[in-house]
What we know:
- The protein is α+β, with helices and mostly antiparallel strands and about 600 residues long.
- The strands form eight sheets. Strands 4, 8, 9, 10, 11, 12, 13, 22 and 25 form a nine-stranded mixed sheet that branches.
- Helix 1 crosses helix 11, helix 2 (about 45-65) packs antiparallel against helix 6 and helix 2 (about 45-65) crosses helix 11 (about 460-470).
- It is elongated.
Amino acid sequence: MKYWSQTFIPTLKESPADAEIASHKLLLRAGLVRKLGGGLYTFLPAGLRVMQKISQICREEMDREGAIELSMPFIHPVENWTDGTRWAAAREIMYRVDHAGAGKGRSKEPEFVLGPTHEEVITPLVKSEITSYRDLPKNFYQIGTKFRNEIRPRYGLMRAREFVMKDAYSFDVNDESAIASYNKMKRAYTAFFSRCGLKAIAVEADTGVMGGSYSHEFMVPAPVGDDDIVYCEESGYSANREKATSGIVPKDLADASPAGALEEFPTPGIVTIAALAAAPHNVAPDKQFKTLVYMGDGKPFLVVLRGCDDLEEAKLGALGFQLWRQATPEEIEPVMGAKPGSLGTVRGSIKNPAALAGIFADHAIRLVGNGTTGANKDGFHLRNVNVVRDLELTRFGDFRTVRAGEPDPKSGAPLKIARAIEVGHVFKLGTKYSEKFGAVYTDDQKQSHPMVMGCYGIGISRTLQAVIEQSNDADGIIWPWQVAPWQVLVVNLDPQDAAATELCKKLALAAESAGADVLVDDRAERPGVKFKDADLIGVPLRLTVGGRGLKEGIFEMKWRTSKDVAKLAIGDAEKLVAESVRSAASKA
RNA sequence: CGGGGUGUAGCUUAGUCUGGUAGAGCGCCUGGUUUGGGACCAGGAGGUCGUAGGUUCGAAUCCUAUCGCCCCGACCA
C-alpha cells in the first residue's frame, strides 16, 4: 500500500507544449515521465511501476517458453562491431564513447560504443561457451536499456534515443529447430501483448539491416504509428507495407507483343511522369516506364517501375547491397547520358552500361506491355517500347509499393492499409552472425556446423506508451488491470477524519490481500481535484470514502471504464472489495 | 541531413509586425472563507525574455551567428 502524499505523482492540468499525441500528453500529465532532452526521459515513480509490471509480464512469458535471462553490458568494445557484419550500417546509429577522463587519447577510433542491440555480444559469448549439440538449443534474453542515435526522436517514448527493450537470441542446431524456437517466441509475444491489454497483430516484415531469412513484426493499430500494415480479412494476409505484395500482376499474364516500331520523339522540358501525362503527349502514367538510379555500395544500379507506381525502398534490400541510396544527378549523367527525367533502359541507349551493378525491373511493368520511356537524351523520349523486345533488364523482382484496394495475392479480395506502431519484432537470422563470429557446434558425427540463430525484440517502453495510446479518454489514461501502476485507488475525501482514514486503511488492506496494488489518496485536496487526478492517472478501480457516506454507512466503488458509481454498505466492505479485485484479476 | 515551426516564471501563454525598460491564467507561499468533479477573497515570492554578438539614446521586439525543442521526410523496438 502506498500513500499519495508519500510518493511523487506530479500531475498537470495542462499539456506541455511539446507533446502532440494523446499518449505523449498523458505520459506527462499523469506524472509518469519527465523529459531530460530529445528522446531522453526520466521515469517517475508511477511510470517506473508500469515499466516494471510490463517487464515482469514479459519475463514470465519468456520463461514460459524456456528462454534464459541474463544481462549484458551497455558499453561494448568497438571491436565487437568492427569485426561484425554490419559496422557500416550500425555505426550510423551508435553512440560512441571516448576514453574517460582527460587521458592521453591514444587511439583515433573510439574504443567503446553504447549498445544499440546485442548480437555482437551474445554471439561471441555463445561461441566460447557452447560447442556441443548436447547444449543446444538455447535462447538467452535480457531486459535493459538500448542506445540508438535515432535520426529523429519522436512522440516521447515512442521513438527515443535511450529506451528499454527486451531482446532475446536463440541458437539452434538446424533450421527445423530454429523455426521451432522462432515459433515459441511468436507464441510468447502473442501472450505478452495480450496480457498487457494490447491488441497487437503479427505481420510479415522486412528484415532490414538485421538481415536474415524472414521475420514478423507485432503491430498495434494506431493512427499515430510509423508503419503501414497491409492486410486482407478474407485471406488473413497481413504484412508491413515495406514487405507487402499484391496480386496486381496475374500469374498467367502473357507478355504483350510489340505494338510498332520504336520511335523517338522530342519532349523538351518534360522531366516528370505527370508532365508527360498531360497534353500534348497524353501518355497515361501506367503506360510509362519510370527509371530510377540508385547507388549500391558505391556502384550505380537501375530500378524500372510503371510510371504510376512508387518504389518501396526497403525492397531493395533483396538485391544484396549493404548500403544503398538515391544517386545524385552528377552521378547519373555520366552513366546514363542524360539527366533525371529523360532516363530509360532501352537496349543501346545507356551511355555506359558497364558501370551498372544491374537493372532491376518490377514485375508490374509487364502490365505496361508497350509504353513510353526516356531516351537517355535530354529532351527526348521513346514510344512503342516493348518490355520483352526493347528493355535491357538484369532481372525482375518486387519493388513497388502496394496500394489499398489492390487484390490480395491469394483471395483476390481488396487489400486494406492501416497505420500501426511496431512494438515487437522476431527475426529468423540463419547463420549470418554465427558464421561471422565462429559460433559453431559439433554434432554427434563429430562434424562442425554454424549455429542457426534467431533474434527477438520487444520495445518495453514503447509498449508502455502504446498501451496509453490505445486506452485513454478525455479524462486521462485507462490502464488495463495487469499493467496499471496501482490497480486500486482508495480516495479519502476527509483525511483529517479518523473514521474515514480508518475505513480507507481497511479497504486498502482488503484489496491488497486480494492481490491488488493499492494507492491511497490521503492528500489535503478538495474532492474535485482528487477525482480529476484519479481519472487522469487511470487506476482501474476507485474506492471513495467520505464523511457524508460514512454517516449513511456506505462507501463508493467505481471502475475507470464505467460512469456508474456503486454505493456499498460498509459492513460488507472487505468482502465486496476482495471479490471485485479477484474478479478483475481473473478477467485480465 | 533536407523542409517547416518555435524558444518570455515550474506549466499554458500575451506582448514581437509598428523598438520606450515584461503582463495574465494555472501552480507555489501566507491569512481567511470554503469542502462530493480541477473553489473564492486578500496579500506575496518567482522572469539575465534560449545564448553570443551587432544596430540604436534605448532591444523580448530589428540584424547576424549559434544552441535547444517540436512537426513533415529517410531509419527503428
